[in-house]
Design brief:
The protein has about 280 residues and is an alpha/beta fold. Helix content is about 55%, strand content about 10%. It contains twelve helices and five strands.
Length: about 280
C-alpha cells in the first residue's frame, strides 16, 4: 500500500514558486518568506500595504501558489502558525531595528512571572518527591528541548544516581522505552517546535504507568492526561523564543531536590566534590 503524500507546507509552496514569479510578486514572496505570520494575520489589502504591492499582485500571487483565493491561503498559513515556528510569530514591524536590552529584560521578567503563577510549591514538591523515590528517572528532549533535558539530568545527578537523558547519539527511543515502568518518573520537554511524533511518544509513556512531567511552552493546551504539566512562557521581542522561564524551572527543580534530599543529598554532593578535587578534574 503506497504511503500517503505529505501535504506541502505553506512556506514550501512560496519558496518553490519564487523563481517563477514576476518582480512584484517576487517582492511579495520574499516578504512572505520573511514574515509568513503577516499573511496569517492580515487581510489582502493590509498585506499589500505592508509589502508595498498592489491588491491585484496579492491576488495573482496566491493563485500562482495554487490557492483558490486569499482566504484559502490565509487558512493554510494560520494552520501552519499553530506549529509554533518562530517565523510565524515575527512581524515586519519588529524587524525595523534592534530590540533594546530593557525590552528583552522586561519580556524575560514577564515570562517568569506568568510561568510561576501557575506552578505551586506543592506541585514542585510532588515532582521532586517522586523523582527522589523513583527506581529510575528518565529525561527526554529533542531539538532545543534536548539541551534542557541534558542540563536537568546533569544537575540532578548531584542528588539522584539513577537518572539518564535519552536518547543518546546513535540510540533509538525504543531501546529505552522498553525499560520504563510504573516505579519510574519521566520528564519530557516539549518546547516549540515539537517533533512530529510527540503525541505518539506521549501515548507510549502513558502506557508505561510511569509518573510523567511534561514541560512545554504556552502554546500547548493544559493536559490532564499526564501527571504534571508545566507550561513555560517563551514570548520574546526578537526572532527567537525566550527560554528564561524554562531554565528557571530547571533550577527550581534541582534546588528543591537538593533541599528535600537533606543529609543524604548533602553527603552525595560532598563526595562528588571530594572526588573531583582528588582527581584534579576541576
Amino acid at each position: 500500500m503506497p504511503m500517503p503524500q505529505k501535504k506541502v507546507s505553506f512556506l514550501l509552496r512560496v519558496q518553490q514558486a519564487l523563481p517563477t514569479l514576476h518582480p512584484a510578486e517576487r517582492r511579495l514572496g520574499d516578504f512572505v518568506c520573511d514574515f509568513p505570520g503577516e499573511l496569517a494575520s492580515y487581510s489582502a489589502s493590509e498585506l499589500a500595504a505592508l509589502a508595498q504591492v498592489s491588491n491585484a499582485t496579492v491576488s495573482r500571487f496566491v493563485k500562482r501558489l495554487g490557492y483558490k483565493n486569499y482566504e484559502e491561503a490565509r487558512r493554510h498559513a494560520r494552520a501552519e502558525k499553530q506549529t509554533g515556528s518562530r517565523l510565524f510569530l515575527t512581524h515586519s514591524t519588529e524587524s525595523a531595528g534592534i530590540q533594546s536590552v530593557p525590552a528583552h529584560m522586561e519580556q524575560g521578567i514577564a515570562n517568569l512571572e506568568q510561568t510561576f503563577l501557575s506552578i505551586s510549591d506543592s506541585q514542585v514538591n510532588a515532582v521532586v518527591k517522586a523523582m527522589l523515590e523513583a527506581r529510575k528517572v528518565w529525561v527526554i528532549g529533542f531539538r532545543a528541548s534536548h539541551h534542557f533535558a541534558n542540563y536537568l539530568q546533569w544537575q540532578m545527578t548531584q542528588v539522584i544516581e539513577n537518572i539518564v537523558s535519552i536518547p543518546a547519539s546513535g540510540q533509538t527511543l525504543g531501546e529505552h522505552l522498553v525499560s520504563i515502568g510504573p516505579d519510574d518518573v519521566v520528564i519530557l520537554f516539549g518546547l516549540r517546535r515539537r517533533v512530529a511524533g510527540m503525541e505518539l511518544l506521549l501515548d507510549q509513556l502513558r502506557r508505561t504507568g510511569a509518573k510523567l512531567l511534561y514541560i512545554t511552552d504556552e502554546g500547548v493546551p493544559a493536559k490532564n492526561d499526564v501527571t504534571w504539566h508545566y507550561r513555560c512562557q517563551t514570548l520574546a521581542p526578537g526572532p527567537i523564543f525566550n527560554h528564561v522561564a524554562v531554565m528557571a524551572l530547571c533550577h527550581l527543580i534541582v534546588t528543591r531536590a537538593i533541599e528535600t534530599a537533606g543529609a543524604s543529598g548533602r553527603t552525595r554532593l560532598r563526595d562528588i566534590e571530594y572526588l573531583n578535587e582528588s582527581l584534579g578534574e576541576l
